[in-house]
Amino acid sequence: MLGLCLGLQCIVIEAARSVGLSQANSAEFEPDTPDPVISTMADQQRIVAGEADLGGTMRLGAYPAVLEPDSIVAQAYQSTKVSERHRHRYEVNNAYRDPIARSGLRFSGTSPDGRLVEFVEYPRDQHPFLVGTQAHPELKSRPTRPHPLFVAFVRAAIDYKGGELLPVDIPEMSEPVSNGNERRNEHRDGVAQPLPEPATRG
């Protein structure tokens, strides 16, 4: 699974609930939740509270992020320093990072100052591929130059499906194998008919 923007936030909510924070939610969905694991960014709180104009106040545009060197996302990007485009007001609440980490969810990328969570992931022994980003990588993906996260996601899906299909068990044949003297497209009353034997010469 690859979660983008709200997708990352939903991953975090479910991770929090899995470690006993049953009412964990986003303050965007439920302002009175006792466990706002997704909350307004500090520099947006006055605006969301109605004390200023909402227009043009999002975290909008390209921002840098630093990735953990041994993470799935760093492997996908082939780099530990990336820049991605954003459009959001809500972020992972840092007060909940430690309890959420007990679920196994890893905060694998943050803003350079470590203040904002930009990427999360589960290790492959917990899930074949579960990565979330607060960014919008689709805005930088092209038909002939797909974004590294989409490439990694599709590759993981192919590998997972291949693991289901291989090895292939070939069942024993209960019917005799055709010797090539029948054509499927020659039928009489819906039943394949044998071809005539070739004439014997001499």
Describe this structure in words.
There is one protein chain. This protein is about 25% helix and about 30% strand. It has about 200 residues and is α+β, with helices and mostly antiparallel strands. The protein has a single domain (about 1-165), classed as Rossmann fold, CATH 3.40.50.880. The N and C termini lie far apart (about 70 Å). Belongs to the CTP synthase family. Its EC number is 6.3.4.2. It catalyses: UTP + L-glutamine + ATP + H2O = CTP + L-glutamate + ADP + phosphate + 2 H(+). Keywords: ATP-binding, Glutamine amidotransferase, Ligase, Nucleotide-binding, Pyrimidine biosynthesis. It is an enzyme of class 6 (ligase).
**Overall tally of structural domains:** 1
Tally the beta strands.
11
Q: Characterize the main sheet.
A: 6 strands, mixed
Q: What would you call the shape?
A: globular
> If you average the pLDDT, what whole number results?
84
Continuous helix count: 5
CATH architecture: 3-Layer(aba) Sandwich
CATH homology-level superfamily: Class I glutamine amidotransferase (GATase) domain
Low-confidence stretches: 182-186
SSE string: EHEEHEHEEHEEEHEE
CATH topology: Rossmann fold
Radius of gyration: 27 Å
Task: Give the proportion of residues in helices.
Answer: 10-25%
Q: Per DSSP, what share of the residues sits in E-state strands of 2 or more residues?
A: 25-35%
SS class: alpha+beta
- Please list the strands of the largest sheet in the order they lie side by side: 1-9-8-7-4-5
Keywords: ATP-binding, Glutamine amidotransferase, Ligase, Nucleotide-binding, Pyrimidine biosynthesis
Pathway: Pyrimidine metabolism; CTP biosynthesis via de novo pathway; CTP from UDP: step 2/2
Family: Belongs to the CTP synthase family.
Pfam family, one: GATase
